[in-house]
C-alpha cells in the first residue's frame, strides 16, 4: 500500500514498520524509540537476532549523540560521502543504542542516505533502523513492487520510484589505524581509496572471519540456482542472465543486466533480474561473469557469487 510522507512519519512515530526508499535499496524502517517495531523488523524479515541493523540519520553531526569516539578523519569522510551510499561502523555509547539494534555488539553501523524522500522523512523522525526490505537471504528490493511481493500488498510503502544505485551501501570500519571495507557496495573501493589516499583493504571474504555478522549468512539468493561462468556461453543451461550487447546462441531466454559496458546499469537491474527469475519459475540460470574485477563490477561480482552459493 503506497503511503504519503506524512503518513510514514505518523506510522513510524506510533510504533509501526514502514518501507522507505533509499538511493541504494528499499529499507524496512522502524524508529529507534519503538522497541516493538524493531522486533517486528526482525520478525518480518525472518532475520536472526544476531544480525545487527544500520541506523539512518539526517546528518553527520547527529552521530555525536550516539558514538563514544570517532577516528580523526571521520568528519572529512562523512562530509565527502554523506548523504550517500556509505555506512560507517563506530563504537557507541551502549545506553543510547538499544542492544537489539546492534545485536549486542559495542559498535553500530551509521548511514545518511541521499534519497530526497528519505532525507525529508529523517528530518522529521530519526534515527531509523532500516535493513534492506526483503526476506532474509533473498534479493533486496529496488522498487515498491518488490517490497509488496515480499510483505504483501497492504504493507505500507513510501514510494520513491526505483532505487538509483540498486545495490546496498558500502560498509567501512576503522581497523588497526586504517579504514577497511567490511561489505562491498555502491561506493567502489577505488572511489574510497582516491579520497583516503590508500586502498581500503577488503575484510568481507567468506574465508576470513567477517566483521559484518550479515556476511555469515546466505544472501541475495533467488530460488533459482545460478551457474556462474567466465567462459563463452555453451548452451548447457537454456536460461541466461547476461548482457544486451552479447550473443548467447541457442539460449531460450536472456534476462538482461543491460550493456556489459555499464556497471551502473547492471547494478541498477541486478535484484530485479534475480527476482524475475523466480517470478518466471526459472529453476536454473547461466550467469555471464565475463565482467571486470574492479570498480562497481567488483560489488556486482560479489553479489552474484553470494546469490549462487
Ligand atoms: O544500503 C543499505 O545499506 C541498505 C539501505 C536500506 O540503507 N541497508 C542494508 O541493511 O543493507 P542490511 O541490514 O540489509 O545490511 C546491513 C549489514 C548487515 O550485513 C549487518 O550484519 C551489518 O550491516 N551491520 C550492521 N550493524 C553492524 C555492526 N554493528 N557491526 C558489524 N556489522 C554490522
Ligand atoms: Mg540486506
- Count up the helices: 9
Q: Ligands bound here?
A: threonylcarbamoyladenylate, magnesium ion
**Given the C-alpha coordinates, what overall shape results?**
globular
Helix proportion of residues, in percent? 25-40%
Average residue-wise pLDDT:
96
Distance between the termini: 33 Å
- Strand arrangement in the largest pleated sheet: 2-3-7-4-6-5-9-10-11
Query: Main sheet, how many strands, which sense, barrel?
Result: 9 strands, mixed
Low-confidence stretches: none
Number of strands: 15
Radius of gyration based on Cα positions: 19 Å
Commentary on this structure:
The protein contains nine helices and 15 strands. It is an alpha/beta fold and 309 residues long. It is globular and about 60 Å long. The structure holds threonylcarbamoyladenylate (TXA) and magnesium ion (MG).
Write the layout of secondary structure elements.
Blueprint: E1 2-3, H1 5-13, E2 18-20, E3 27-31, H2 35-45, E4 54-56, H3 74-81, E5 86-91, H4 99-102, E6 107-111, H5 116-124, E7 128-129, H6 144-151, E8 157-158, E9 170-175, E10 178-183, H7 189-196, E11 201-202, E12 225-229, E13 239-242, E14 253-256, H8 263-279, E15 284-288, H9 295-308
Bound molecules: threonylcarbamoyladenylate and magnesium ion.
List keywords for this structure.
binds magnesium ion; 309 residues; 9 helices; binds threonylcarbamoyladenylate; nine-stranded mixed sheet; alpha/beta
Amino acid at each position: 500500500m503506497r503511503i504519503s510522507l506524512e503518513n510514514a512519519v505518523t506510522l513510524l512515530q506510533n510504533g509501526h514498520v514502514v518501507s522507505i526508499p533509499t538511493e541504494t535499496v528499499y529499507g524496512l524502517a522502524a524508529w529507534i524509540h519503538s522497541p516493538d517495531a524493531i522486533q517486528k523488523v526482525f520478525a518480518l524479515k525472518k532475520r536472526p537476532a544476531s544480525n545487527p541493523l544500520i541506523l539512518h540519520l539526517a546528518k553527520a553531526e547527529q552521530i555525536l549523540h550516539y558514538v563514544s569516539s570517532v577516528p580523526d578523519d571521520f568528519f572529512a569522510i562523512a562530509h565527502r560521502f554523506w548523504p550517500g551510499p556509505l555506512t560507517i561502523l563506530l563504537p557507541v555509547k551502549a545506553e543510547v543504542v538499544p542492544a537489539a539494534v546492534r545485536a549486542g555488539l559495542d559498535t553500530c553501523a551509521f548511514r545518511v542516505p541521499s534519497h530526497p524522500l528519505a532525507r525529508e522523512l529523517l528530518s522529521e523522525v530519526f534515527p531509523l533502523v532500516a535493513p534492506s526490505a526483503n526476506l532474509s537471504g533473498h534479493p533486496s528490493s529496488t522498487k515498491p513492487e518488490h517490497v509488496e511481493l515480499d510483505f504483501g500488498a497492504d504493507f505500507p510503502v513510501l514510494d520513491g520510484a526505483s532505487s538509483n544505485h540498486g545495490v546496498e551501501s558500502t560498509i567501512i570500519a576503522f581497523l588497526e589505524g586504517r579504514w577497511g571495507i567490511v561489505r562491498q557496495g555502491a561506493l567502489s573501493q577505488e572511489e574510497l581509496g582516491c579520497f583516503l589516499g590508500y586502498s581500503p583493504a577488503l575484510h568481507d571474504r567468506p574465508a576470513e572471519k567477517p566483521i559484518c555478522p550479515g556476511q555469515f549468512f546466505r544472501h541475495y539468493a533467488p530460488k533459482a540456482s545460478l551457474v556462474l561462468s567466465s567462459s563463452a556461453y555453451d548452451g548447457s543451461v537454456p536460461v541466461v542472465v547476461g548482457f544486451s550487447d552479447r550473443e548467447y546462441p541457442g539460449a531460450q531466454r536472456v534476462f538482461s543486466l543491460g550493456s556489459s559496458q555499464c556497471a551502473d546499469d547492471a547494478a541498477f537491474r541486478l535484484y530485479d533480474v534475480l527476482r524475475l527469475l523466480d517470478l518466471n519459475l526459472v529453476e536454473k540460470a547461466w550467469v555471464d561473469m565475463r565482467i571486470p574485477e574492479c570498480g562497481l563490477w567488483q560489488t556486482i561480482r560479489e553479489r552474484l557469487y553470494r546469490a549462487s552459493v
